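call fold(seq) -> tokens
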Amino acid sequence: MDITEMRHELRALTDRAEITDLLDRYLRSLDEGVIDEEWARAFHTEDVTAEMPVGTVHGRDAVLATVGRAMALFDRTVHLGGNPVIEIDGDRATARGAQLSTHVLADGSEDVFVSAGRTETDLVRTADGWRISATALRIVWTRGTPPRLPEGLGAQAGAGSPDAAMGRH
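ret:
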């Protein structure tokens, strides 16, 4: 292996590690509960598109607002991601994986809502590192009591009914 091939392999390994770290930090950030502008800039491009259980939104500000409102429905959460398949093509990448999310409702009931799904994420390399440019969480199954969606969350984002928004078919 020559030096050029070694550099290319090292770059690919470094990119893969940086993308994995970004996705892991994103899920952990949901559980830590600090959803602010700094959070949004640390993970998303300005023109990000996010398909979430509560609807699809476009733009970093819309993601910030929607994720903030959605996470406020829960008192405590644990989000686990795994099995990432990452494909890198220069300054662009895709990551496909799985996500298991456990939520304790914030309505005082202490009811638990669990969802599991598949994630599809497009990423771009920016001057600040890898950022999410598009993401989709497609819920495969749920258990427990889903949160009651406040007026405008879900329907406003195009998700339709609360059952559809929470992945129940």
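Confidence is low (pLDDT under 50) at residues 155-169.
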